[in-house]
Design brief:
Layout lengths: L4 H5 L1 H14 L8 H9 L5 H30 L4 H4 L21 H14 L4 H30 L1 H9 L20 H7 L1 H16 L5 H25 L7
């Protein structure tokens, strides 16, 4: 189950498309996933109680998006941003520090957490499409990357793969620290888009104002494209390094 070269090259837009498709699900299923959960958990509750539950569920979603941004920033701090967002698979080295000691694909773990958090803002149909579609696509990307790393790194990657879980993180590190120095500034800046989404979901959980979301997504996309152009130029100017 490996992604094609085209899928990997355009992975950001495919992932963005899955998120967009999830919210377009409102045209088919008009009921919000969080409201449906409230109805299932407290079918006979009055309006004040239902609002409390709704805020609590959306608050959990916001926490998931914050966790997604934090995990991706932690992982990105151990890779150059132009490597994280490159359009080709990078196999020049194996990173086994930071979150990579607990899970082989922390960046994609962050994507799963983001999907779970954002799914609570979608319709019931959209939530299912987002979580299932995102997970299946990420597994395809992981298959492609790990096949390339296995071919390039051989026994070294085989030993790492045997010790460290693919997508569900271990509670304790599974391999010794390699001594890499994290670059926290580039980690947080490189994940600005994810942090903007996390802030938007948190604001929505507090205010229940849906008009917060669309401008936030637009701002996040603008920031991403500006940074992407910088990463692309920097990637051309510097030698290739390790990849996730």
């Amino acid at each position: 189950m490996h992604a094609t070269e085209w899928e990997f090259r355009h992975r950001f837009w495919i992932i963005f498309g899955l998120f967009s498709l999830a919210f377009l699900g409102y045209f088919v299923d008009h009921r919000n996933a969080s409201e449906a959960l409230v109805g299932a958990l407290a079918p006979h509750a009055g309006t004040p109680r239902r609002l409390e539950l709704l805020r609590a569920i959306l608050g959990c979603g916001a926490l998931l998006t914050v966790a997604a941004a934090a995990v991706r920033s932690w992982a990105s701090a151990y890779l150059r941003s132009e490597v994280v967002h490159d359009t080709v698979v990078r196999t020049e080295g194996l990173v086994a520090d930071g979150p990579y000691r607990r899970v082989r694909n922390p960046l994609y773990l962050g994507n799963v957490l983001l999907s779970l958090g954002m799914a609570l803002l979608a319709s019931r149909l959209g939530a299912v499409l987002l979580v299932v579609g995102q997970t299946l696509f990420l597994l395809r990307l992981i298959g492609r990357e790990e096949a390339a790393l296995a071919a390039a790194e051989g026994e070294r990657f085989a030993a790492y793969r045997a010790a460290v879980p693919r997508l569900v993180p271990a509670l304790t590190p599974r391999v010794p620290a390699a001594g890499a120095t994290p670059h926290w500034g580039q980690g947080f800046v490189g994940e600005a888009f994810t942090w903007i989404l996390a802030a938007a979901t948190a604001a929505f959980a507090i205010t229940l104002n849906p008009r917060i979301l669309l401008p936030s997504v637009g701002a996040g996309l603008a920031v991403y494209w500006i940074l992407f152009l910088v990463w692309k130029r920097r990637g051309r100017a510097s030698p290739r390094a390790a990849a996730d």
